[in-house]
Amino acid sequence: MNPILEKVPTFPSNSFALKEEILPYIKIGWHFHPEFELTLFTESTGKRFIGDHTDNFGPGDLLLIGPFLPHYMRNHEIYYKGEPDLRIRAIVIHFAKDFVGEKFFDTPEMVSIKKLLQNSARGIHIWGKTQKKIAKIMENMLHLEGYSKLMSLIDILQIIATSEETKPLSSLGYRNSFAPHDADKINAVFDYVLRNFEAEINLSEVAEIAHMSVSAFCKFFKSRTGKTFSHILNEIRIGHACKLFIEQGSSVSNVCYSSGYNSLSYFNRKFKAVTKFSPLEYRNRFYKEPKV
Fold first, then answer.
1. Dist. CA 5–CA 32, nearest whole Å
2. Is the pTM of the predicted complex or chain greater than 0.85?
């Protein structure tokens, strides 16, 4: 498994790191780093975990993640089965707090960006027209060097800082309590759950993967993710259910059993607790019949 602390490569000729990633699937597990991270996904689908936030991700997702905020993106299982037509493509920017000088963001002109960087400690999702505008700039940055490349990043931060099309991801109360030696345990647990959430999952089996007793594992998991294991499992299952409703318009009963639940009443209750809609309301609201 990958270590929880990621070392981001830097080069003397640049004040920040910019890369285009094209891979068959996402390979790094639950991790953090001291740099800010701005990631644009152009091809890829899966689950994202940022602090205590859980949701699906797909093409167009644009995320700003603050220093030391643990995060984990995992593709849907089909990506790991050698499908030749599937790949991920992302543009990723890493930059340190002082990448343009220690006091640069303390100047009066930079007050909005300084606030943005402080708020990124929870992770930020950028959407709408703001996302589209920034996506074009990031694509263009792949072909820039020097001053133009640097100013493009400053422009991006200003656009995000002054936009209303953003939302925080982790809860206000989330606190990172990870230690490097936790990496293997957390990655092994998430890997198991994301491969098996459609079937019944026994808590004792999951605890065994982490080499802990059930009670010790429950305390460990909540202290590291900010949520109980059952809460995370429900969010993963409900996220999958939402995907089935939106993409396939499947019946409530089919989605229930395909998402790892064996009780319709329990599924209905948990689905509404997460989405604020009943499963049928959600399907009717978000599924669009394909045009013939």
1. 5
2. no
